[in-house]
């Protein structure tokens, strides 16, 4: 894997022990005193560093003077701090974000994009499951669910208000979770089968696993939004409530099946998680055991190092920075730099 990535004029440095410093008008990245990359400052709009990456005082001062924001995340990708100069455009970005909340047409357009991303990615997961299934009954169930998603996508594109859009999303979610068992290997269904989606508390092992992965994904999406200066609580699809990261939850929707659900299915189908990795509470809830939670967290971080081709940018990027790319695309949409927000859609 490369030591650093430049996407949408943002430099991402993900390798621990890296040292960024100013070399004339260039950012030079060193690892163990070996130069790995040079990037001209005028090509950079922002710098994001993960974990124990060092940034020289001279580079910090120069970036502040030129309006280049430096965002610090921990090694798990959670937001730590942001370093910026005295003049910042974030207030204008947040004003645009909040103004869009008051504009029914803009809010609906953004919410529609989040739902479209969720539906398309969920459909792809079910379609792949149908293609790979060796059981005719499972294949038919998954194919029927895919057809329902086709109808949901058509309806979501034309509904005229937020309540109707949320209704389409909710019905599609019920279809999705009722079909998800058919993607599990038959031998795993005794212990990992699920009957719908329930969270507080999870009533089966698969729901407990999904809830934990969704929590990790929400942290990543919230960090991504904070890294570009957006307010993670001011969302469009999810209803606003005190303390609720509604915008982070909006962005989560397009990544649920791509990142969390696929990982859950992989862990179960490959036997990496056993039914004994969970414990049952007195009230009937199901929780992950501590060792299993740690193992899943490690697998999650390793998965984020894998790369794929971003369909819009047509470039290879680590999976871990996908939420950051989408956060920057969303910021550009709110500022009016692009006409509409395009969600991440897996291939």
Can you describe this structure?
- This protein is an alpha/beta fold.
- The chain has two domains: 4-88, Ribosomal Protein L15, Chain: K, domain 2, CATH 3.100.10.20; 93-335, CRISPR-associated endonuclease Cas1, C-terminal domain (Four Helix Bundle (Hemerythrin (Met), subunit A)), CATH 1.20.120.920.
- It is 49% helix and 17% strand.
- The protein is built from ten helices and 13 strands.
- The strands form four sheets. It has a five-stranded mixed β-sheet with strand order 1-2-6-8-9, with helices on both faces.
- Strand 3 (18-23) and strand 4 (26-31) form a beta hairpin.
- Helix 3 (104-132) packs parallel to helix 5 (162-179), helix 4 packs antiparallel against helix 5 and helix 7 packs across helix 8 (246-269).
- 39% of the residues are buried.
Protein traits:
four-stranded mixed beta sheet; 49% helix; Ribosomal Protein L15, Chain: K, domain 2; Four Helix Bundle (Hemerythrin (Met), subunit A); globular; alpha/beta; single chain
User: What share of the residues does DSSP label as strand, in percent?
Assistant: 15-25%
* CATH homologous superfamily assignment of the largest domain: CRISPR-associated endonuclease Cas1, C-terminal domain
Major beta-sheet overview = 5 strands, mixed
CATH fold name of the largest domain = Four Helix Bundle (Hemerythrin (Met), subunit A)
Q: Compute the average pLDDT.
A: 89
| Tally of DSSP helical segments | 10
CATH architecture of the largest domain: Up-down Bundle
Helix content: 40-55%
Please give the radius of gyration in angstroms. 21 Å
Q: Could you name the CATH class of the largest domain? A: Mainly Alpha
Distance between the termini: 21 Å
Give the domain tally.
2
The largest beta-sheet arranges its strands as 1-2-6-8-9
* Number of β-strand runs: 13
Uncertain ranges? none
Q: SS-based structural class?
A: alpha/beta
């Amino acid at each position: 894997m490369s030591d650093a990535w430049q996407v949408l004029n943002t430099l991402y440095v993900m390798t621990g022990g890296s040292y960024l410093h100013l070399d004339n008008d260039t950012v030079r990245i060193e690892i163990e005193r070996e130069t790995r990359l040079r990037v001209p400052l005028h090509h950079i709009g922002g710098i994001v560093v993960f974990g124990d990456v060092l940034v020289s005082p001279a580079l910090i001062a120069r970036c502040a003077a030129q309006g280049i924001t430096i965002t610090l995340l921990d090694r798990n990708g959670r937001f730590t701090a942001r370093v910026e100069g005295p003049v910042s455009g974030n207030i204008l970005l947040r004003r645009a974000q909040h103004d869009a909340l008051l504009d029914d047409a803009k809010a609906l357009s953004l919410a529609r994009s989040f739902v479209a991303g969720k539906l398309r990615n969920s459909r792809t997961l079910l379609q792949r499951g149908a293609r790979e299934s060796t059981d005719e009954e499972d294949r038919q169930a998954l194919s029927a669910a895919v057809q329902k998603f086709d109808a949901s996508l058509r309806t979501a594109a034309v509904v005229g208000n937020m309540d109707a859009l949320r209704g389409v999303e909710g019905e599609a979610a019920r279809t999705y979770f009722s079909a998800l068992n058919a993607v599990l290997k038959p031998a795993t269904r005794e212990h990992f089968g699920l009957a719908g989606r329930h969270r507080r508390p999870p009533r089966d092992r698969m729901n407990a696993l999904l809830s934990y992965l969704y929590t990790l994904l929400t942290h990543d999406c919230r960090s991504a939004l904070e890294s570009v200066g957006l307010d993670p609580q001011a969302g469009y699809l999810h209803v606003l409530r005190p303390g609720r990261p509604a915008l982070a939850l909006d962005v989560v929707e397009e990544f649920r099946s791509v990142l969390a659900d696929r990982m859950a299915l992989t862990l179960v189908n490959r036997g990496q998680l056993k039914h004994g990795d969970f414990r049952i509470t007195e009230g009937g809830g199901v929780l992950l055991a501590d060792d299993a939670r740690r193992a899943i967290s490690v697998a999650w971080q390793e998965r984020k190092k894998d790369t794929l081709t971003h369909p819009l940018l047509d470039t290879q990027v680590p999976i871990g920075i996908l939420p950051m790319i989408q956060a920057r695309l969303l910021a550009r949409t709110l500022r009016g730099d692009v006409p509409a927000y395009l969600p991440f859609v897996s291939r």
